[in-house]
Amino acid sequence: MTWLDRLLRDWRIRAARRWIPPNARILDIGCGDGALLRAFGPKSACAIGIDPTPVQTPIPGVRLIQGSFPSDLPAGIGPFDAITMLATLEHFPETEQPRAVAACAELLDREGVVIVSLPSPRVDPILDALRALRLIDGMALEEHYGFDPRKTPPLFAAAGLECAAWRTFQLGLNHLFVFRFARISSSFPATAA
What we know:
Layout (H helix, E strand, L loop, with lengths): L2 H15 L7 E5 L5 H6 L5 E6 L11 E4 L13 E7 L10 H11 E12 L3 H10 L19 H6 L3 E9 L4 E8 L12
Parallel strand pairs: 1-2, 1-4, 2-3, 4-5
Antiparallel strand pairs: 5-7, 6-7
């Protein structure tokens, strides 16, 4: 991982950080080197990361699982207050995304949030150039396929989750989404008598 890879990763973590409640039970899907869990693990009630590539260094207070989400996640864990998928969802084949999102909904506490960051499709040529210049390692760039971030809210809505926030960051080249279970309003519109 180059200095630029770490800079971009840390920027994503900072964007997600404000949505993770204190003492949260956290599941980090695609945890990579465990940077998010390293930051939150000791301060969380439970911290679990899953990634196909094993994290090389154990992280105190964090359970790391080598494998694919959701198939390799052990039964009986959860619910979680925060589920993160930072620069991860675009690596799932589109046919697998509904299953992954449904699994997030099943593992999420009723008051919890799913935090997703996704690159804009405009990022891929930039990343290709940065990799050619050896400024980034370009981890799994071959799995990018120009996923359109606008498809994300309907994908999560199909699993019963609403978009609570959506903004761009990193000069508009990345999107941050926050999803939660749909809230039922306790107020009803006044009706004429």
